[in-house]
Every structure is written in structure tokens, then in C-alpha cells.
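Journal club side-thread
Mid-discussion, someone asked how the predicted structure for our own chain would compare to the paper's figures. Pasting it here so we can look after the session.
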Amino acid sequence: MSIQSNKFKVIVKPNSKENRIIDFNKENNIYRINIKAKPEDNKANFELIKFLSKSLKKKVRIVSGFKSREKVVEITDKQ
């Protein structure tokens, strides 16, 4: 997975069979990501951060969209 900028949008589908990146929309620069965790008590958000950190080998954080499926994620620094 290669990201061009420090901030990017993701659309999360929680409660899926596995964690994986489904699609990338080049027009809107949005990644579609399936996450195994349920969307309760921030479980899906934590799972998304863990999955992206491991995939990118960098530290990431959610900037906006904590209670939405559409989120803005920022790469903060190298891990």
C-alpha cells in the first residue's frame, strides 16, 4: 500500500470477515476498507488504526469522522 499524501479519506465497512483494503477511488482519493471489529465502543476505529499502522509501517491517527463510516486519516510519523 502506498499513500501519496499525509492525509487521506477512508470509507470503513465494519463487522466484515477480514481486515483488507477493497478499493481505491482515484477521482476522490478515497480508500474503501473492510474491518473485522464491530462499530461499538470505538472498536472499529482502533482496529482501523492498528491495520493501517501495520500496513503502512507508520503511525497513523484519525483526524475526523470518529462516529462516521467516512473518516480522514493522517500519517503522523515513521514507526
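Post-session note: The beta strands are 7-13, 20-25, 30-34, 58-64, 70-78.
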